[in-house]
Design brief:
- With about 240 residues, the protein is of the alpha+beta class.
- It folds into 2 domains: about 100 residues, Lipocalin (Beta Barrel); about 100 residues, no CATH class.
- The chain is about 20% helix and about 40% strand.
- The strands form 2 sheets. An 8-stranded antiparallel beta barrel has the order 1-2-3-4-5-6-7-8. It has an 8-stranded antiparallel sheet with strand order 11-10-9-16-15-14-13-12.
- The protein is elongated, with a radius of gyration of 21 Å.
- The chain starts with a helix and ends with a strand.
Length: about 240
């Protein structure tokens, strides 16, 4: 009898909110609000910052583990049920609270962060991919998907396609790209959006602006002294692309 009661209480604690099973939390959750804001054709980092700071959660209740990505770091915490939510402890005094509201995972507001909502990734990254990959894939598809015509610059008249896996086709002598979401690349580009373009693992940062279906890409000039951290600003405009 005592053993049965103990098991029942343990199941209640692990269950968290009575209306949701622990497995309901499992999986990859992405910040769809940030993606939708960026997809309107505005400044990328401004849209992300207005809907951040976190972009993806990976929750594994069986192993009591939850991991988030904010675009430049991946942080793992220990998951435990507390009342009707899950607490994620990261060491020290830092913790986050997660709950479910319908089909959304809700990260409760913290001392310095707003409440955030996340949706289950429709096309999660393959097993073993870094946490944050599912958000990045969805963002790339929403922000740069489709056919872009080169109306100014090398390859004028051609069509550029940015794949959601970071491949690019149609920009002369370039095969890969990466959007700057946060971190060091954001620090050195300051107020400007930037991306990395490369071929055969050799490339450079570029500054870009996005206004609706027009994408302008500029050479990135470093205004810092040799002994200072780079500070990038727009140089000559290299391409103007328009999405069909």
């Amino acid at each position: 009898m005592r053993q049965a009661l103990t098991l029942s209480l343990a199941a209640l604690v692990l269950g968290g909110c009575a209306s949701h099973k622990p497995e309901d939390y499992n999986g990859t959750w992405i910040n769809q609000g940030a993606i939708d804001a960026a997809a309107k054709g505005v400044g990328l980092r401004q849209a992300l910052a207005s809907n951040g700071p976190n972009f993806e959660w990976n929750v594994d209740t069986a192993n009591q583990r939850a991991i988030f990505s904010n675009g430049f770091e991946v942080v793992e915490g220990r998951l435990s049920a507390v009342d009707e939510q899950w607490n994620v402890a990261f060491g020290g005094d830092h913790s986050e609270q997660l709950g479910l509201d319908g089909d959304e995972l809700v990260q409760a507001a913290g001392q310095d962060t707003p409440e955030q909502q996340f949706e289950k990734a429709r096309a999660p990254a393959p097993a073993g991919a870094p946490v944050g990959s599912s958000f990045e894939k969805a963002l790339y598809g929403a922000y740069l998907g489709g056919d872009w015509k080169i109306v100014e610059g090398p390859g004028k008249g051609g069509v550029v396609r940015f794949a959601d896996n970071g491949g690019v086709d149609g920009l002369p002598n370039l095969t890969r790209y990466a959007l700057c979401l946060a971190g060091d690349c954001a620090s050195i580009s300051g107020q400007y959006d930037s991306l990395w373009l490369e071929r055969n693992q050799q490339g450079n940062p570029w500054i870009f602006t996005r206004d609706g279906d027009t994408l302008e890409i500029f050479q990135a000039l470093n205004s810092a002294q040799p002994n200072e951290m780079p500070q990038l600003k727009p140089g000559a405009r290299q391409w103007v692309l328009e999405r069909d």
